[in-house]
């Protein structure tokens, strides 16, 4: 079954009350209405509170770049109009990088495909695209063959290219999926402005790299489409799992053996002939049964304590997206505590990780070492050097 992007909490939160889209969505999904309205009210109150303490020193509201401004996501990137000059300067770092990523993404979308197709064996081409990403500083990358259920069925946001509710009918065979690791110094301060900045910088970097990779592929004579924060065509965590970047953990994100869940994911969809990678199993599902760090650290109990089994027999943990979003709203558009809590996000002994599958003793050793070093989780209270004092 394909996921419908309109069902994501992000999409639901952006529906304008009283619009045709709003009425239509909730007439078909009445069960979501009350909790979504509560979230909308909380968001509104939070924004009003920020605006209410303004004392005429407004520095203006900063948004993402051109493409994003045209989408309905722009409120995500606002900066408190009451921010200090120091805070304003720090946040411009992120906004300028978003603008750069946005303009490169536009360039990739508008670029024509080279009419001369380069004939390269799929295995060689897979090595080349991975080398391209390695030269961009990224080593968590894989290729997935796109199956009938891997892309969203309908658009949940309006963008320059699509309208809300449009069916997604894309004919691409492969997805090159990669992960951009977020800085530990930032995520270990979660929930905080540092966490929010790192998430936005991660989105920007992943979008920029996806755009450059799409241009490279178009120049080789094959169509390519970015699947990044400027427009996701897929529930990307599942594509990442299929491409072998990691396994879905208790935290409801892909956990990579090297970077844990402190990543932002993006992909390029293409018909360039490639050799697909397979899923990996490094024993994460069993590890998550023992670990529970994300569950125990989540302040709103959004992470399940009991596992469920999917139709295809895979273990997964239900996620309370509403509670999670409420926490995001309350803490200023981000939380990320579960990223800092995951042992793999902090870096685990690679040799032990390579031996942990089917070895409860090795798993226990990893957890013990993690607890000795970080306790409940690695939390840094002081702001980063360049951030304004709290
Ligand atoms: S982001 Fe925060 S609220 Fe959401 S699941 Fe993680 S720890 Fe819980
Ligand atoms: S914190 Fe532990 S339980 Fe949660 S996803 Fe990471 S490994 Fe799994």
TrEMBL record:
Q: Does the keyword Cytoplasm apply?
A: no
- Membrane as a keyword of this entry, yes or no, is no
Keywords of this protein's UniProt record, alphabetized?
A: Hydrolase, Iron, Iron-sulfur, Metal-binding
From what superkingdom does this record's organism come?
Bacteria
Query: Which GO MF terms are attached to this record?
Result: hydrolase activity; iron-sulfur cluster binding; metal ion binding
Task: Enumerate the spans annotated as 4Fe-4S ferredoxin-type domain.
Answer: 278-308
Q: Encoded by which gene?
A: cprA
Per its record, how is this protein called by name? 3-chloro-4-hydroxyphenylacetate reductive dehalogenase CprA
Annotated EC = 3.8.1.-
First-level EC class = hydrolase
Q: Which InterPro entries match?
A: 4Fe4S_Fe-S-bd, 4Fe4S_Fe_S_CS
């Amino acid at each position: 079954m394909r996921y419908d992007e309109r069902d994501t909490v992000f999409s639901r939160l952006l529906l304008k009350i009283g619009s045709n889209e709003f009425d239509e969505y909730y007439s078909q999904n009445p069960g979501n209405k009350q909790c979504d309205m509560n979230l909308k009210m909380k968001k509104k109150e939070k924004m009003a509170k920020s605006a209410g303490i303004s004392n005429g020193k407004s520095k203006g509201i900063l948004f993402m770049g051109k493409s994003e401004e045209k989408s309905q996501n722009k409120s995500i990137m606002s900066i408190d109009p009451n921010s200090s000059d120091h805070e304003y300067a720090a946040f411009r770092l992120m906004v300028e990088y978003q603008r750069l990523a946005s303009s490169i993404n536009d360039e990739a979308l508008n670029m024509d495909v080279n009419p001369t197709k380069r004939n390269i064996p799929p295995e060689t081409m897979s090595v080349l695209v991975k080398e391209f990403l390695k030269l961009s500083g990224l080593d968590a990358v894989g290729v997935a063959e796109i199956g009938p259920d891997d892309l969203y069925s309908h658009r949940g946001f309006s963008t320059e290219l699509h309208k809300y509710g449009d069916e997604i009918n894309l004919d691409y065979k492969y997805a090159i999926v990669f992960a951009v690791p977020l800085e530990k110094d930032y995520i270990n301060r979660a929930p905080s402005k540092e966490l929010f900045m790192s998430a936005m910088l991660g989105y920007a970097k992943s979008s920029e790299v996806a755009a450059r990779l799409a241009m490279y592929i178009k120049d080789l004579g094959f169509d390519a489409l970015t699947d990044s924060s400027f427009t996701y065509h897929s529930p990307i965590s599942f594509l990442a799992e299929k491409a072998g970047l990691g396994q879905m953990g208790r935290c409801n994100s892909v956990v990579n053996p090297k970077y844990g869940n402190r990543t932002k994911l993006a992909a390029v969809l293409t018909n360039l002939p490639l050799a697909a990678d397979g899923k990996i199993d490094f024993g994460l599902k069993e590890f998550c049964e023992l670990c529970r760090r994300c569950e125990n650290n989540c302040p709103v109990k959004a992470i399940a304590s009991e596992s469920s089994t999917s139709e295809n027999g895979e273990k997964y943990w239900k996620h309370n997206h509403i509670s999670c979003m409420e926490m995001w709203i309350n803490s200023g558009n981000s939380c990320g505590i579960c990223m800092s809590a995951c042992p793999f996000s902090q870096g685990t002994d690679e040799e032990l990780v390579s031996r942990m599958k089917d070895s409860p003793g090795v798993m226990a050793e990893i957890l013990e070492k993690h607890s000795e070093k970080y306790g409940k989780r690695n939390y840094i209270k002081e702001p980063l050097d360049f951030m304004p004092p709290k």
